[in-house]
What does this fold into?
Amino acid sequence: MADYNDNQWTLVYDGAITKNVDGKVNIHPVTYPNNIGLKIAANLYTPARYDENARYAAVVVAHPNGGVKEQVAGLFAQFLAEHGYITLAYDAAYQGASEGEPRQTDIPASRVEDIRASIDYLMTIPAIDDHRIGVLGICGGGGYAITATAEDKRIQSVATIGMFNTGRVRRNGFKDADMTAIPVRLREAAVARVAYAKTGEVTYKGELRTAPVHYTEEQLQQIPAGLYRDGAWYYGDRYFHPRAQSRYTTMSLMDLMAFDAEDAADLIDQPILMMVGDVADTRYMTEDVFKKLTGTTDKKLVLVQGASHIDEYWKPQYVTFEEQNLLEFFGRTL
It folds into this structure.
């Protein structure tokens, strides 16, 4: 189990750097504003033998729903930095170490803006080539990366891992299995917003996690298999981080349920790589977005053989495969 207390930057991914060493990949905590003035917290990774007078390609890494920059987003950011990229793993507004109240508000427009604000920040760094900036989105960050890439042509190429179409799931239920309750969820969001406006009370979908939960096998078996069971173990146990919270405000449903990563997929004319586990229960979301990528001919769908959704975040055999594909893709497109 990774312990965030053992790392000066509270990184909890496997192989995380523990100190900055001259001539090696270094990590630099930074902050910058988004378009409504909230301070975004991020880790900037610079490659070995970083030269401020050189010119580098850069990649913004958008974390999963409920995740933070110290988990899988940091893992891939560090890997790409080890191969010569400047990378930025950030916490979305209202999440992690970034500003925003109420906490764990999840507004798609804000999540897309966080990507744009991250690109704004990278463009202030003289060593970064403005025309060689890419985005990597993981899980929910992948869905928001799709929309950001459709709208923001500063993004030269985009890759996703286990893309999660958050709005579709919040609206229709997982695997579109709860569509009859759409009006119920919308009314629930309205009630929650009324309560917040009148009293300041904030209600949430999901529970606050304050400490690791060391699940027994019996406890895990009580959680539905797949994304939810594996995610409970990943976020709640082995890779626990106190700022990573899988809950979201109930009133966020107003915005979430009107969002769909598929809606603007046809506006993407940049190169795109989409990776997903072939046995992942979220695979349908990647495949459905991929079908709608009619605006680009430079597109590739890669199935990660044997991987479930959460497997893609940490299991060495799958992570190594994904990293190899990312190196080839960004090496060609940036």
